[in-house]
Input
Amino acid sequence: MPYYETVFIARQDLTEAQVKDITASFEKIIKDASGKIHKTEFWGLRNFAYKINKARKGHYVLLELETEADALHEMERQMRLHEDVVRYQSLRLEELTDGPSVMMDKGGRDEKSDRNYKDKKEAA
Output
């Protein structure tokens, strides 16, 4: 089965428990179609680059899935109909990612940039 990565944004006035319930309903669609959920990450309440439906923030959630395209299409249809989902996007992956996503792994990125900065400074 192919791998997919889906990120969706829920409205800012929802609680974390409500966002988890919405996520669980989308996960159930995948599991009912004999798919697998490999990773679920809650990125939290984040600012938008621009206003969407008069809102400035939203709850971001990442799902990494292994499922057939029909189940993914049904999940996307449910997202389109759900009034609490502001935006969503699904991408097909060649393989699953290891460890946390870039949004969650801030420590590793900072260490690399500090090391590169030190190397450039020593070379000068």
